[in-house]
Amino acid sequence: MLGKKLVTAQKRGETRALCLGLGMVACSMMMYFFIGITIVPFYTKSVWTTETVCKVLKANIEDKVLRPDSEGSEDEDTFSYPCLQVWVNLTASGQEVMLYQTEDTLERNPKCSYVPDKLENSKEVKARIETIASNFKRYHTFPCYYDPGGEQTNVILSRLYPPKGLLFAFLWPTLMFTGGCLIVVLVKISQYVSVLSACQ
Fold it and tell me: What's the predicted TM-score (pTM) here?
């Protein structure tokens, strides 16, 4: 009687472990799919792939308050901020080009190097832009990214999804997939050993 209870409990444990492993594999596949349709297209679309050194030529804050040129909702159209324009000397080609924070900055407003998040306090936005401008004037040389193909003549300060970020995004689903497969394999090995023991 006790042996039957032990066998039943063992089967239930194996079933739960098998369901856990298969669930982990299924969740990891969903994460792979989500990353593949969100992050990967932005990574492959970016043409600023080569890192070089940029030297600041001038960093000016326009007195005129500009609005984003990108299409959006009415609330976004009413959001205004000082326009920071940073011009740098591209070491790779020696050209004078405009610097943008990320690829998204160029799409949101190609006239400004930095587009702040939508904040209610306009003084905070102005103070942040002034701090960024002073930092550019203080640190004249810094790494940046440019387009080696020449499609984009401007440069960006940082990529939204660098190669390390892409690898980190794939790290967690890979660990989950590996763990799920390992659980399934261990359960199958346990069942195989149990069958061999029963036969003997």
Answer: 0.69
